[in-house]
Fold this protein.
Amino acid sequence: MLSASGFTALPASGVEAGCRVDYTVNKWTGGFTAQIKVTNLGPTLDSWRLAWTYTGDQQVTSAWNATVTQTGRSVVAAGTSWNGTLATGSTAEFGLQGTWRSADPAPSDFTLGGVPCGGDGSTPPTPPPTTPPPTTPPPSADCGGAVICSDFENQTGPAPSGDWRFTAPDCQGSGTAAVDTAVAHSGSTSLRVDGRAGYCNHAFVASTADLSSVGPVMHVRMWVRHTTALPSAHVTFVSLPDASQGGRSLRVGGQNGALQWNREVDDATLPAQSPAGVALSRPLPTGSWQCLRFAIDTTAPGLDTWLGDERIPGLHADGVPTQDIDQQWLVRTTPPRPTALRLGWESYGTGDDTLWFDDVAVGPAPLDC
């Protein structure tokens, strides 16, 4: 770990103001995460902004619990709607993930609201991990501060109950959902969905948790096991009602045999359903548990998707249109704002499948498989 701290700075008036910053980084070859804790030693700030400069070639790629922007080597982190006020003596904590090539020194020129924090309490870093994940952050312990963290071991009956309820958005047919004690990724319990073909066979298990304030990046992790290869027709097995679409869903499923995102409000897909676009996605392997992870930026139309430790290139949108991937997706510029999570099956033509879900988590910080 590398810890860099700043200490109180005295402005020209002599009144104590400034901040203390604890910057703790965990890095590996080509990548890093940083956990940043800022303590306000000056007057209350209604909308705090912490700025610093990287002296290496670090590039921030994502952040949680703050809105982080980078211009050249200059970085600014701003509080969100739920942690934007920083009273005297109080702290705010946030994290970020990034990349580097030749150098990754800790920054030392922090300013809070334009007032320098001063000082540099850096200590030498420990050696980087020997086998870091190539594109994902290091493992989190369990679910951390996730809003949803469920292995379904508290399900006691054959029907989903408690924090999980059966639902059939729009219309219901012969698709079913149940608690399964015969197949599980961990423990002895999972959710099983028997999905049926045809538009009116919606069958989902929905979490009762309100996700409307999770962000600025919403991280979703689940283990899923399914029986039949994704069909050529469009299907969905994860549905996130989206306030930015008037409650219509941000959907994860498949088409042309590969994983895809779909936006209900305009039927946009990620990737584009051209042969080149589909080739940049991946099929969802059958007959074994697979870890799926999503990062949904609620401040910009950005998405990332991992199958295991691989970031899927066709399921990545970064705001810059890319041929055969996200040109269609980025036609809509309104950032997504998912409010809930539903797991199940929805077919728009052909395609039956039996699926199991286990070890599901949703929160503002990256989640490990």
